[in-house]
């Protein structure tokens, strides 16, 4: 019976080397809460999309953020850079607290905090030439003047591997991968410190994904950038991340170094996610077994009491449905090199003993 975490879930080349991240904290988020107003049958209520998240990101590292659709990943990413207002909590950059998203003081931080969206076509103005879009941050923040603006755009096009005539053309004239390179150039134009990469390669072909990921890694090293990399693709996250955070219903349930998390997941939800990831070898994929979660994902408007994951948790069932899981919300605590929000975290033997079903073709 295979472990919950596939050993070959990686896109890294064997000779890939990365400098160890600096221990200095760039971004320190504490108690982040974000809510959305929802109207139903004429009654307005609120849904909590991010529920008390703490997150510290070091300078020069890439933190991957994974979880099911609707868990709050993108909302958290936007909240960290001031694109979503906080209902509680704070975000500090270099130990200085960010102002509210709607305040005028936030403008002074915009240059340092940028985002790359999933769909570059929807984030680029189709009526503007590429050069105009990419030069906007340069002009807005006063980073260059006069002819130097056009020269800076040429430099940025070269940095992301696009030809010299790119600036004179419109977004519709490019492929999806090229448009994403343009979006990366526009983010880079502001000379930021911290970049949220919100599913930046999910809409691209696999071969194009590899080129864009290599570009992001090179730019990170060359310009000393720090990334929050949001994705559903666990192999992509393993390739690019130094540490990985797992999110469930608006809360981070596990946070660890990449290899620690992939090779020895401690939270039952993390183990289930990893076991669901496909393996490239068809023979292994047909015969391997995986953890299957029972029950539906709860609505964010009706999050279960206690541990939000207990309604789908095989560990909860194995242990005879302990009252603690339904009565007490777990908090992140150190367990074997990981931070885990679970009253009864897994060890290696328990991962292998998790309930499974045979291959998915049955």
What would your notes on this structure say?
The chain is an alpha/beta fold. The protein contains 14 helices and 14 strands. Helix 5 (about 145-160) packs across helix 6 (about 175-190). Strand 4 (about 90-95) and strand 5 (about 95) form a beta hairpin. The strands form three sheets. An eight-stranded mixed sheet has the order 6-7-8-3-9-10-13-12, sandwiched between helices. It has a four-stranded antiparallel sheet with strand order 2-1-4-5. Strands 11-14 form a two-stranded antiparallel ribbon. Residues about 1-10, about 10-15 and about 350-360 have low confidence and may be disordered. About 30% of the residues lie in helices and about 25% in strands.
* CA distance, first residue to last residue: 17 Å
**Which shape, going by the Cα principal axes?**
globular
Question: What is the helical fraction, as a range of percent?
Answer: 25-40%
**Computed CA radius of gyration, to the nearest angstrom:** 22 Å
Q: Average the pLDDT over all residues and give the rounded result.
A: 87
Number of helices: 14
Structural class given helices, strands, pairing? Answer: alpha/beta
What's the SSE pattern? EEEHEEHEHHHHEHEHEEHHHEHHEEHE
**Fraction in beta strands:** 15-25%
Largest sheet: 8 strands, mixed
Strand order of the largest sheet: 6-7-8-3-9-10-13-12
Number of strands: 14
* pLDDT < 50 stretches: 1-8, 10-17, 352-362
